[in-house]
Write a structure and sequence with these properties.
319 residues; alpha/beta; Rossmann fold; 4-stranded parallel beta sheet; two-stranded parallel sheet; 14 strands; globular
Amino acid sequence: MTGATGFIGSHTAELLLKKQYSVDAIIRNEKRIEALPEGIEPIVCSLFEPNAILEKIKEVEYFIHIAGATKARKPVDFYNINAETTKKWLEAIEKHAVKMKKFVFISSQAATRPSYIPIDETIESAPLTDYGASKQKAEEYVREFIPRIPITIVRPPAVYGPRDKDIFFYFKLASFKLLPLVGKPDRPFSAIYVEDLAEAIILAMEHPESTGEIFFVTDGEIHTWRSFAEEIGKAVGGKKLKIRLPGTALWLAATIDEFISFIIRRPALLSFQKVKELLAAWVADSSKIEEKLGFKPKYDLPTGAKKTAQWYRENDWIR
């Protein structure tokens, strides 16, 4: 698998181990070995050079491709890392993975389009950002190989849980007794707790009915940023000061972050494109994976938020 040192990938790798799978993780350099969950076999290899490990590819039965770029300095970086590397791995697997049972590609809801109402997998894509467009391009490559490789595409929405560093920002502010409500606080979105997503990924990997299919996977609820902030506040505990901020506050913050990014030559944490995503509505319908594969999320938002806050506190991310 790829992406095992990341947020979603590490939880997926740990669950694979619990299910008694032998897991090899492709990592970019040896410095990342320490970030792997215990029990994972590291394979040092560039995402751009799958042919460097052909002997390993010949033996692989399942391949979960999670690695990708969510931040980049230039649009071309998104396409190179998210789309072109996916194509390279598919080409190598088609030629050499004689034991392949399933290739699972982890895409994103961002590859589709914003929506205030639940959209299903048949909706025509219209990505809002270069990140989303690069994931859409990767999906196009993946679909080209469906006649020749057993493939499943999984599209997660907003994902939260232990080790996450993006939505963690809200938990951090809540620990400072602040609950920010930015833009239109009642704009809706879909979400999923990371352990539920890992279960869905492995279910898609194992289930014979998933071959050739695309699945949204959510917790089955429609959230708003107001309700999400309130649940985080409850999970962290204590009284909170709610702060209403206009969407322009995010644009101002992004302007500062983009300027710093230009100076230090690193991707902005809060880019202009990220603001476009944050201020949009993102609601997906995951009934297909529930009906076709029998997926049932275990965690609702209050439970997931409480577990996440507990992990952050135990690991000194918040107090």
